[in-house]
Amino acid sequence: MSRIIGVEQSLSNVEEALKAQGYEVLQLRHEEDAKKCDACVITGQDKNVMGISDPVMAGPVIDANGLSADEVIQRVDKFFN
């Protein structure tokens, strides 16, 4: 089963890297999008902009601020492997 990872729109490099690793990626545009995801990757610029700081999903929320795409993938992999 493929994991669905929500990614903020401005993180296109992370989105492409996750797809290359076999993850299904969904761009986060609304709070409803996060509810469909197993994990979310956000920029950390405004952690509540999507309402994700509220418990709308059970999976991890990864703050990509200051991380490379590879470091984000390592964190995502850590949660699911």
Summarize the structure.
About 30% of the residues lie in helices and about 20% in strands. The chain has about 80 residues and is α/β, with parallel strands linked by helices.
Strand order of the largest sheet: 2-1-3-4
| Poorly predicted sequence stretches spanning 5 or more consecutive residues | none
* Tally of DSSP helical segments: 3
Nearest-integer average pLDDT: 85
The total count of strands amounts to 4
Estimate what percentage of residues fall within beta strands: 15-25%
Radius of gyration: 11 Å
Give a quick account of the main beta sheet: strands, pairing sense, barrel closure.
Answer: 4 strands, parallel
**Distance N terminus to C terminus?**
13 Å
- Structural class, please? alpha/beta
Helix content: 25-40%
SSE order, as H and E?
Answer: EHEHEEH
InterPro entries: UPF0180
Pfam families: UPF0180
Topology diagram in text:
Elements (H helix, E strand, L loop, with lengths): L3 E5 L3 H9 L3 E5 L2 H4 L4 E4 L18 E3 L5 H12 L1
Parallel strand pairs: 1-2, 1-3, 3-4
Pfam family, one: UPF0180
